[in-house]
Design brief:
Number of strands: 0
CATH class: Mainly Alpha
Radius of gyration: 20 Å
CATH architecture: Alpha Horseshoe
Strand content: under 5%
Number of domains: 1
CATH topology: Serine Threonine Protein Phosphatase 5, Tetratricopeptide repeat
Shape: elongated
């Protein structure tokens, strides 16, 4: 191993360590409700493609936590995390579409994102989907599908009429 490759390896290790420290610090600040500090740590990671950082930044931009609310940025980050398979971001994007918050209201898109999160076992998404099928919101009304989703979500006794 040459001296240059040794330095490259140690620089890479330091860089990974710095990223881990920034992520941990950003999450800790978020949980402590120090959103401005959290954004300082997580925004660069979100821009680099980290799904959890994108999800947390989306929440801060959506709700104006530590920064002026920015619907476009909130939707951009939520979508980026959701497209990487982040189940909670998929659920969040589903709600954005269902409620028309940060994006144009679109029940079909809501169903798509709740379905993706539900396929990962997210109970809230399964329950929301069940209600959408029960009410015919964004999908054709389908009581059998609603019941199936309630059962998957652990609500075996949900009455579906």
């Amino acid at each position: 191993m040459t001296e240059d490759s040794t330095n490259d390896s140690s620089n890479e290790a330091i860089e990974v360590s710095d990223i881990d420290a920034s992520f941990s610090s950003g999450i800790a600040a978020f949980e402590a409700k120090n959103f401005k500090q959290s954004l300082q740590f997580l925004a660069p990671l979100a821009e680099a493609g980290d799904a959890e950082s994108q999800h947390r930044c989306a929440i801060m931009y959506q709700n104006g936590l530590g920064i002026v609310a920015n619907d476009a940025k909130a939707a951009e980050y939520m979508r980026a995390a959701a497209e990487q398979g982040h189940a909670i971001a998929q659920h969040g994007l589903g709600f954005m579409y269902m409620e028309g918050e940060c994006v144009d209201q679109n029940a079909e898109e809501a169903v798509k994102w709740f379905t993706r999160a539900g396929e990962q076992g997210l109970v809230g998404s399964l329950t929301t989907l069940a209600m959408m099928y029960q009410e015919g919101n964004g999908v054709e009304k389908n009581m059998e599908e609603a019941k199936r989703l309630y059962v998957l979500a652990g609500f075996d006794d949900m009455v579906v009429e």
